[in-house]
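Thread: Newbie trying to understand structure tokens

Hi all, I'm a second-year student working on a class project, and my supervisor (Dr. K.) asked me to get a predicted structure for one chain before our next meeting. I've only ever worked with sequences, so writing a 3D structure as a token string is new to me. If someone could post the tokens and maybe explain what I'm looking at, I'd be very grateful. Here's the chain:
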Amino acid sequence: MENQNDYNAEEIFSKALRAGRRTYFFDVRETKAGDYYLTITESKKFTNEDGTFFYKKHKIYLYKEDFSEFNSSLKETCEFIIENKGEEVISEKHDKDFDKKKEQKNESESDDLKDEKEEEKDFADVDFESDDE
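---
Reply by user tm_fold:
Sure, no problem. This is what the structure looks like when written as tokens:
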């Protein structure tokens, strides 16, 4: 009988999807019984204060009996997002300069508000000449 610690699932097929700081790995592996299953791994790169890198990984194991429902749910969820929010990314939080740009935008909006108030003040201070003079 094979010891569970001695078993190392063989990788049959692998596909990587790079997406910014994240990489998604889709790996087909084989069970002890000889059947295939899928692992989906999200690997996200982080930087230590000293400049070295480290990765955080999250893994999902997906077995054949769940493929159909998983695929259907994933497709339905993706379609919902696209139908309601479109394909364009509307969040700027993924931008490494997000806080800096947000601060600049707020300052610009504040300046615009000041200008608008000054224009209103100038408009309200209009003097009308009297024909009596």
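A couple of things are worth pointing out once you decode it. Residues 1-6 have pLDDT under 50 and may be disordered. Residues 91-124 form one domain. Feel free to ask follow-ups in this thread.
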